[in-house]
Specification:
Number of domains: 1
Distance between the termini: 45 Å
Structural class: alpha/beta
CATH architecture: 3-Layer(aba) Sandwich
Strand content: 5-15%
Radius of gyration: 18 Å
Number of strands: 6
Bound molecules: nicotinamide-adenine-dinucleotide
Helix content: 40-55%
Number of helices: 11
Order of helices and strands: EHEHHHEHHEHEHHHEH
Strand order of the largest sheet: 2-1-3-4-5-6
CATH class: Alpha Beta
CATH superfamily: NAD(P)-binding Rossmann-like Domain
Largest sheet: 6 strands, parallel
Shape: globular
């Protein structure tokens, strides 16, 4: 059911790779709620061509941008401002990539060159996006920015590796920039800490199947799906959450508050 929560709002969605992507699910929901959208992803991801399907459904242009490239970001924002013929009300940062995980290097044997790139793509990119919007004065007052994160920023999950550090940095950038943007333009910036979700990035984590079923058993409501996450993003982009900023918001069916569940204990007793 749609509520027209984003009627008249303009948004940029980063990171829709395929139908499973959280950004894809969110773009669909924002469209249903009446938003006008611009979609963007890295040029190499756009070559897959999948995003054109989403562009058609949501009636949105696709503008390529490598999020580590300031010229790409400037061009993206300038074209988006032109397309909307107005400023931007919301941004979804749904980007993550670990070069060390991809190259099979464990946390104790990180390649620091890859590590720099991981931190840039997965965390400092939020700063780059915000800085570009700031410099171009591209956001409307009371705009809303959401970036996606994971609880490995607070607790250890062995195979999440350097992405845990990247997410800790991402959450910190959201708080720090959140202060400055709130004072300057009442723009709010939050991170959503999402349950494990079956997507391309998610499945890159070693032992993902065990990981996702453990989280399911440890969450009183079960794991939050990509569509659930999309709905939460919509609520944060809407005017109903105007005073929420600089927060890391758990969206995980209760996982983050649990010590252990009966279901997990029962499994232990079977052993
Ligand atoms: N899937 C999960 O279990 C899970 C859980 C919590 C948080 N998250 C976070 O959600 C976000 C979205 O991931 P997803 O699970 O939908 O996977 P996904 O693979 O569908 O999305 C990741 C996106 O990042 C984009 N990207 C990578 N490098 C880029 C670059 N240089 N420039 C621009 N874009 C680039 C990819 O093209 C892709 O679209 C990520 O931040 C991820 O860490 C995912």
């Amino acid at each position: 059911m749609a509520y027209n929560l984003l009627k008249g709002k303009n948004g940029i969605i980063f990171g829709a790779l395929d139908e499973k992507s959280i950004a894809w699910r969110t773009a669909l929901k924002c469209h249903e709620e009446g938003a006008r959208l611009v979609l963007t992803n890295a040029p190499v991801a756009l070559r897959m061509g999948e995003i054109n399907k989403l562009a058609e459904i949501t009636n949105a242009p696709v503008i390529p941008a490598d999020v580590t490239n300031m010229d790409d970001l400037k061009k993206l924002f300038e074209e988006a401002l032109n397309h909307f013929n107005g400023k931007i009300d919301f941004i979804l940062h749904s980007i993550g990539m670990s070069l060390n995980v991809r190259k099979g290097k464990s946390y104790t044997e990180l390649d620091y060159g890859f590590n720099q790139k991981t931190l840039d793509i997965s965390a400092m990119s939020l700063h780059r996006v915000l800085r570009t919007a700031w410099d171009l004065d591209a956001m409307n007052d009371w705009g809303s920015v959401v970036a996606l994160t994971y609880i490995a920023a607070q607790r250890v999950f062995p195979h999440y590796s350097e992405m845990a550090d990247a997410k800790a940095l991402l959450e910190s950038v959201a708080r720090s920039f959140g202060y400055h943007y709130a004072v300057k333009k009442k723009v709010r910036i939050n991170t959503i800490s999402q349950s494990p979700t079956r997507t391309t990035a998610g499945s890159g984590v070693k032992g993902f199947d065990g990981f996702i079923s453990y989280a399911e058993k440890m969450s009183p409501l079960g794991n939050a799906t990509g569509d659930d996450c999309a709905s939460y993003c919509v609520s944060l982009f809407s005017d109903l959450t105007k005073m929420v900023t600089m927060q890391n918001l758990y969206h995980d069916g209760g996982f983050s508050s649990m010590g252990v569940t009966q279901e997990v204990l029962d499994g232990m007793e079977d052993e």
